[in-house]
Amino acid sequence: MTPETVIAIAPEAPTKPAETPTEAPSRPSSAPGETDTEKSSDSDLDDEIQRIIREIPDPTPQPGGE
Amino acid sequence: MENALFGTETEYAAAGNMSPTEVAYRIKDGIFGSRKYGLIEPAPREWGESPGNGGFLFNGGRMYLDSGHLEYATPECRTLDDLIAAEHAGDRILLSMIDELQLKGEAFFIKNNTDHFGNTYGYHENYCIRSSPRTRDFVEGILPFLVTRQIFAGAGMYKPASTRPRASRLPALPGTVDGSPPPPFQISQRAPFTSVDVSHRVRFGGRPILNLRDESHAGRRYSRLHNIIGDANRSEFATKLKIGTMALVAQLLDEGWTSEVEIELEDPVASLKKISGEPTGTWMVKLANGSEMSAIDIQRVYLHEATRRYLGRDEDTIWVLRQWASVLNTLETDRFRLDGYLDWVTKFLQLKSFAAKAPRGWEEPALIKLDLAYHHIDPSVSLFNLLQRQGKLQPIIAPERAEAMMVNPPTGSRANARGRIVQAMSTARADSDINWALISRRLGERASYGDERTMVYEYVDDWVDVQRADAWYLIPYIIDWGAIAYKNHILELGDPFSEYGAEASGYSATVPDWVGA
Predict the structure, then answer these.
(1) Which of B95, B156, B377, B463 could make an SS bond with B347 (beta carbons 3.0 to 4.6 A apart)?
(2) Domain membership flag for residue B478
(3) Å between B145 CA and nearest CA of chain A
(4) Which chain A residues are within 8 Å of B228, Cβ to Cβ?
(5) Residue A28 pLDDT > 60
(6) Which chain A residues are Cβ-neighbours of B323 within 8 angstroms?
């Protein structure tokens, strides 16, 4: 990413929407040593969510903090 | 990041088979009893910080009890990735202790800002600046930024009507883009608890958007901007953008910049709450001049000036400016494309998906647990970590970096010296010089508060107090962010940007000679 590229996507006028092409934030590159993870199906995710809900404690009042 | 130094403080929530405070105490005692991560502090420092309340860590940070919570202050960091690693290191230290004390499944820590019972606890950000954050220009300059930053920094919060906080001023009818009823969801966890624009206090008398506390821990040359309105994030991307943008804005204001575009808000607290209550809304807020402006465009004012002044100067700044622009553009056109980047968006979509399949929809009671599950730090029960394993979230730093930061300080600041010396003191068993019973007898006094009996201590401000009282027999060492003192051997660390390499080496090498002497 060069400074010139950053200029190209920086907004011009702060009072109106930028007219630069919309882009999703760049995904950071994979961390060193990471292997690809298999994407589970939605049903696997739902099952895991149900498991998590069972295993974590119920909401617990906390001391008021700062 | 050039000219920047930052650190954060996280008050963890706790839960399990014990009370939250008991969990906090047991883990704190385990951390310092094990001598694996830090050194206990013998001095009573102030109200609520009795002898042994906590201590400094080998990574240069600090772990201690505050208002019944275990609180972790990171070391001062020069890079955003170091800050992320330091935050993760705190989580890992807690999890490591849970394992070591065989409390897995019995003790849990949660990194968020509300318990859904009307209580809030903090995530504080600290930025080293050169001017005072208490001037009118600084306050007026930063308020619009703090009010609107939640659109990418908010952690999100499920908020059914039954769990509204006691002191909330939630808007009755937050606007939505398509006119449909708003979902029971807040973008920011802290916004509903905020009631004043600015305050010298952090909670009593009203929780402020901007806290005016300025304990620099670095003499008169620097000030410390202490921000308490932010949420504790799980997303590394959101954390990096949250801290990075704030660091740049702090520098703008430090340099005396004032906006040529009118962005002063008519009512900052009302604007904060309005935006927070509009996950699908327009984010339009009223300005003091009577017009309206969107939160995105207010953010663009800061982005525009930061780009003009700081473009290309260092890796962190390049990343922040690029992602700040891109995120604002995407928030404007299709905010839910930021699933996997922003915590509030990611959580909102997960809760929405769950609600769509639940018998009671958005009123399903399990949604509160799901909200909390996002913030559990134990990967085996954390919704955030589950999504990460599923490939829906991309980490920014390698796990090894966070692992290393558990016991190694970052480079580039006095945190490096502090961490190395604390390690040396622990290795030399400096805490064996502490006579806890004597401290209680000499500095403590039993007092009654209603039906409760408690110990109240005479506080020790710093090493000057100990030296003046010739009390090294009582308090053998005292460690502060800006100085370390062991039995009258003083090392001042007044410049937060210096590593004090040679001084730290010399001090560390000599510490064993002082133990037991």
Answers:
(1) B156
(2) yes
(3) 13
(4) 66
(5) no
(6) 25-26
pTM for this prediction = 0.91
Q: Which residue did the predictor score with more confidence, B330 or B446?
A: B330
Q: Which one of A20, A56, A58 makes the best mutation probe of the B interface by having the most chain B beta carbons within 10 Å?
A: A56
- B442 pLDDT more than 70: yes
B209: tokens are 């958007």
B66 among known catalytic residues: yes
| Å between B505 CA and nearest CA of chain A | 32
Give B284-305 pLDDT, tens digit per residue. 999 999 999 999 999 999 999 9
Distance (Å, rounded) from C-alpha B132 to C-alpha B172?
Answer: 37
Q: At B323, is the secondary structure helix, strand, or coil? A: helix
Using CB atoms, which residue from A18, A49, A57 is nearest to B370? A49
Which residue among B29, B66, B339, B495 is the active-site one? B66
| Residue B460 belongs to domain spanning | 414-514
A26 burial level (CB within 10 Å; 0-12, 13-18, 19+): exposed
Helices B315-334/B236-254 angle, 10° precision: 110
Give whichever of A35-49, B211-225, B391-405 has the largest mean pLDDT: B391-405
B510: in domain: yes
Q: B58 to chain A nearest CA, in Å?
A: 25
Instruction: Return the beta strands (E) in B68-129 as ranges.
Output: 69-73, 107-110, 123-129
How many domains in chain B?
1
Both tokens of B69, joined, read 């919570």
Residue B358 is assigned to a structural domain of this protein: no
d(CA B474, CA B443): 9
Complex-level ipTM: 0.88
Cross-strand partners of B125: B8, B227
